[in-house]
Design goal:
Structural class of chain B: alpha+beta
Number of helices of chain A: 4
Shape of chain A: elongated
Strand content of chain B: 15-25%
Shape of chain B: rod-shaped
Distance between the termini of chain A: 111 Å
Largest interface: A-B, 61 and 61 residues
Order of helices and strands of chain B: EEEEHEEHEEHEHEEEHEHEHEHHHEEHEE
Oligomer: heterodimer
Number of helices of chain B: 11
Largest sheet of chain B: 5 strands, mixed
Number of strands of chain B: 19
Strand order of the largest sheet of chain B: 4-3-2-5-9
Chain lengths: 190, 465
Amino acid sequence: MISSIKIRWVMVGCVWMAAVGLTYWNSVKIDRIAAIREANERLQREVFFENRNAEELKQAARTHQSMFLPVVSVTLGLVEVKSHLHSLAVALDLDQIFIKGEMTRAKEGRVPLTLDARGSFRNAVAFLTVLRKYPYLPVTQTKIRAFSENGDVEMSVTFFFQYSLASPDQIKVGQLQVNAHPSHGGAKPL
Amino acid sequence: MFNMKYKRIIIVHDNNVYCMGCSRADAGQILFRMPMEQVLNDESIAEQVPKKLRGNNKYLCIVPDHWFDIESYPFRSKKSSLIEPFLERKLTAAHPEKKAIQHFFNYRNIAPAGEANNLYAYFIQDNSAFRLYSALKRMHLAPRQITAPGFLWEHKLAQMTVDFGHKGTLLIHMGEKMCRLYFYFNGNYLFSRSVVLTDAPDAVDALTFEINQSLYMFSQKAKSDLDRVYLLTENPEMLDLISRSLGRDVEDITPQVNETRFFEFPEVPSLNGLLNHNDLVSPPRFFSVTHRRIKQALEWWPVQWAGILVGGLLVLSLLGENLFLNSVINKENAEKHKTHQQMSAATGQHLTEYEDILNHVLNRVERPTCADALRRLLASLPESVWVRKLNVTVEDDPSLHLEALVLSKNADHFKAALALLVANVRHHFKNAQAFSINDIDIRMDPSARAQSTFRYRISLRLNLI
């Protein structure tokens, strides 16, 4: 009889532990439902926002897209960009042009580049101004040092080559333009 | 709901232990019989008990009346939590050599008219009873309730007579060779006596003598007179004989008993007609004693089953809720999936992706550019300032470092040049409003001594955000 009492107490304990466990499980599910509903509401708001601002979002997407040059491969893209920059620098009467890509510091979608050149201060500033027209070549640092009395400077520009991998049919022919227009900024020769 | 029907009873009679059936199929059948001595002393007897009969705490046990004793104590409270420990102490103190008494007692609260509350403690006092209980427990036949014919007749008489609870009552139960006398006061069993009947002509006189002796004991115990005498006999002539010899009215209740009799016990004729189906339930309607531990277990039984039932219902309802919540989760997930598809179909991109794009574009737009910083710096420089070194950084800590040479005729011209530089910087750089001459590091140009003009080297640092 005593053992059957103990067995019944164990049964009572098991039943009530099951009840407590189920209660906890149900409360977890309720929290999950609340989270899903909140996520659904957020999604509904997003859909509404997207529908209402579709044009602006598309414009932003286009702007963002322009910040990455579509290339078939990184190496080819680098070769192309270096060649173009070299031509640009030459067009602006810069010499001793040296362009180096730091592949060890390359990340997904961008490669750090450094361009060293010599020329007049005016042309150096002009080069920097032209570089602004290439959104996929954002400049991060510029160092200019006067090294002679005739106003020539040594310039070192650090920038990124930002790219996106694409198939050959997505790449426009002549997408890199040679557009060198020396600016008339207030550069002072030495 | 928590009543249990007894299917078998154990009867101790005439130094024998009988197990009798009391279900409709085997009512009155002897399922097994063993001499009491063998039950008490032979430990291997447990093997002889059929397996289908085994099971502790499933039986009602009827023992001889003289195995019970009665004590009364004055006690004011009616709470069982106070009464039971009190009686345990009292009975143990009164019978120190019989420690098992504390496990086998029961009580009644009786308040005689005009007097304080009294406890009537009924307890098993015979050592054979304790030994028998232990032996039955070993045989897996331990009884749940233990009672005696005196209590059974008490229950029967209370059902059959009207004023049994307010009178002193004697029941004379005539058997073939034995007559049993049961004395009750205000519906409570006091004591019983057994008188052997002989075939002698003065058997009735001898019986009358014994009855009168017992009446004296009754009046001492009950402090009252006897009011009613009932006779139970198969011989109708006994009624007149007993009435005349006692000199008082005696009522024959044999026909009434015969109307309600159900169980016949050929081996124990004194129990014939005493029990019917309705009586054999646990808890019983007649007075009985249960082992203390079993009693406590039985008290918890309804609580436990209630706990299991309520818990079970709760678990079922929670399971139902769980299933319902599952269906809600599935429904919400389906809606979320549908919304995602809507978004992808409409714009091809999610808002989080747009967020990255917008952040990227904003960073680019808000970030200062080298060309712009250069342009503004060059616009800020007076005529007499010549750039020597320039460092513009637009990432991490956007700033501009300038080292330049200032050529001036004299100190005033130099100061004016610096003042103009500061004013222009403040004008062209919006976040440099606090810029002052103190922020410009001024040193003499080493080559100045060889020339007649003032040549100073200046250096400054501007934050671009």
